[in-house]
Amino acid sequence: MSMLKYFFEMNFKNPSDISAIEELFKDLDISKDTESCKKHMRQ
């Protein structure tokens, strides 16, 4: 459940900073689906 939280959670202090999310998911299959990530990440 925490993985979902981090995937969808918005960084309100700096909304354009997705470095922490990218680091967390970098080796997982979901990060390979860049179109889906762009569509759903932080939403």
Brief synopsis:
This protein is mostly helical and 43 residues long. The chain has helices spanning 2-8, 19-25, 34-40.
Map the helices and strands.
Layout: H1 2-8, H2 19-25, H3 34-40
H/E topology pattern = HHH
Class per helix and strand makeup? mainly alpha
Total of DSSP H or I helical runs spanning 4+ residues: 3
Rg over alpha carbons: 10 Å
Low-confidence stretches: none
The fraction of residues assigned to DSSP E strands is under 5%
Task: Please tell me what the overall shape is.
Answer: globular
- The amount of helix comes to 40-55%
Report the end-to-end length measured between terminal Cα atoms.
16 Å
Q: The biggest beta sheet, please?
A: none
| Number of E strands | 0
Calculate the mean pLDDT score and round it: 78
Describe the structure.
With 43 residues, the protein is mostly helical.
